[in-house]
Amino acid sequence: MAEIKSSSTMPTLGRRPGGGARRFAPKEKAKNAKGVLKRLLRLMLRFRKSLVIAMLLTIATSSIAVVGPLLIGNAINTFDTKTASVNSRLLFVILVSLVSCYLAGWVIDTVNGVLMTRLTQRFIKDLRRQFFAKLQKLPLNFYDTRPHGDTMSRITNDVDNVSSTISQATTQLIASVFTICGTFVMMLVLSPLLTAVAMVAIPLFTLLSKTIAGRSRRYFLAQQRELGTLNAMIEESVVGLKMVKAFNRQETVLSEFQTVNGRLRDDSAKAQTWAGFMMPFMNVINNLNFALIAGVGGVLTIKGMATVGLVVSFLTYSKQFGTPLNNLAGMFNNIQSALAGAERVFEIIDETEEPPDQETAKNLENVRGAVEFQNVSFSYLPGKPVLKDVSFSIQPGEVVALVGETGAGKTTVVNLLTRFYELDSGRILIDGNDIAGVARGSLHDCFSVVLQDTCLFTGTIFDNIRYSKPAAADEEVVRAAKLAHADEFITRLPQGYQTAVTGSADNLSLGQRQLIAIARAVLCGAPILILDEATSSVDTKTEKEIQKALLTLMRNRTSFLIAHRLSTIRDADRIMVIDHGKILEMGNHSELMRRRGLYYDMVISQLG
């Protein structure tokens, strides 16, 4: 088929309002960060083997870190201040052990860093793949009601935030837990009294973290949402730059950008400010706690209740006890930003997908092209029906034109026939088969579509025409282009069929892009052809030539034509006039003209 297979990434047949209207929507409240964190951990468990190895290596480095202060204290105790002597042999053994510990820690840390980097990249690869796969399964109304730039921001900026934080924070979190536990045990062994003094700081740490976390998380989530809004605005402005300049809206667009950018600045400043409070306050608490322990330890040393080495070891342990907390405080803003980004990613992953095919869904074979609507009703928004109890029957090979005012429901008929949207009620049959019981892939293979908004993909002209039939030979592509009257302009291009095109660049005119889309539909050769304003962007002479080509294309195919220029559909076997969601008139051109109804008025109006 033609453009139908790219339906998840291209404009729909009937675009619904959305996009820019959400630009200045109120900010949503942040969800539970604990739930997001638990979900990230569950995803990480997919790589449990690598994670277990990383944990073991982290435990090893944490154990070495716990042993270090004890060795330092023992080294100090080798000095005897009363006799002014030193146990050189013991000191040498301790120093060698200390250096060996530090070297071993460095090697293990390096290996662990490489392992965690690989694990993180695999995790992010899976997360991004899951996100993009989800985009292919979402219904088209999702894309019709959301800014594309915001969706792009989620799969790039938000996933990158998660990636950078996981690679740094995972090992630090594990190391922090084991370091704190090991340090606490060693502190208890050395001096329960000094341990009780050191624990005074714990309630202060808890209160500080709880206060700052609640404030900063809200602003980090708002920051990520505003960033998505800003990306959406930039995408709209770049794509529509010609219209911006044509209507002299540069100042307005700049003003809107400054407004959104200002909100992003404010939310970012608040988020970073609140997160920035964490590290200084943690240092203050640590330093006060260190001074308190040093004072109590000094008193114990003077009274002979502790040695100098023990107090030095304990002070080192107290610093070591606070270091993991300081490290986490330093990463606090990154963690909050990553949780906000992960929340936005999970919002998309949790979106409702298209209803899956039924277990009994069948594939259509040898499709003739008979189409029947039976009492079909549909509404994009509840309570606002677009089609109301529509019924008609089309014979195989019949050419049917749909006419009516803008918004009457013409394109909606095609959207429902291709099952881009699900019915509210009624049935649609192809060759007597209810399309609700047909596998979507098989159903889409029945259609060849040319849209008013032509969609081209990055690649050559050959690639874009061959998109509907990847296995087609070059000769088939050229033959389809000639039938669509595209070969003439393609061969005039410097690289011919090898000319590179993209979806957004303007190196081809709208008419040329539409001719390529028609060639794509010709190459597909599906039994049902849908032309939605397929010649709206070409000149009158080319339009007549294309119409001759389309007559050949439509031969022995059921064809649906949607056009506002009534001259393009007067030769259709049947013309259906749609107004306010109902079929008011049906017949060929001559019959409808004789009736002097709505179709007659439309023709006379266009003729002036």
Kindly report the CATH topology of the largest domain: ABC transporter transmembrane region fold
Radius of gyration: 35 Å
Question: What is the typical, i.e. mean, pLDDT?
Answer: 79
Distance between the termini: 39 Å
> Class of the largest domain, according to the CATH hierarchy?
Mainly Alpha
The stretches of 5 or more residues where confidence is low (pLDDT under 50) are 1-30
Q: If classified by CATH, what would the architecture of the largest domain be?
A: Up-down Bundle
The tally of structural domains comes to: 2
Fraction of residues in helix: 55-70%
Question: Total strand count, please?
Answer: 14
Structural class: alpha/beta
Oligomeric status: single chain
Morphology: elongated
Question: What is the strand and helix layout of this fold?
Answer:
Blueprint: H1 33-44, H2 48-77, E1 79-80, E2 85-86, H3 88-137, H4 140-144, H5 148-190, H6 192-198, H7 201-239, H8 241-246, H9 250-276, H10 278-302, H11 308-330, H12 332-349, E3 371-381, E4 384-394, E5 399-403, H13 410-417, E6 425-430, E7 433-434, H14 440-444, E8 447-450, E9 459-460, H15 461-465, H16 474-483, H17 487-492, E10 500-501, H18 510-524, E11 528-532, H19 540-554, E12 558-562, E13 574-579, E14 582-587, H20 589-595, H21 598-607
Parallel strand pairs: 5-12, 5-13, 8-11, 11-12
Antiparallel strand pairs: 1-2, 3-4, 3-6, 6-7, 9-10, 13-14
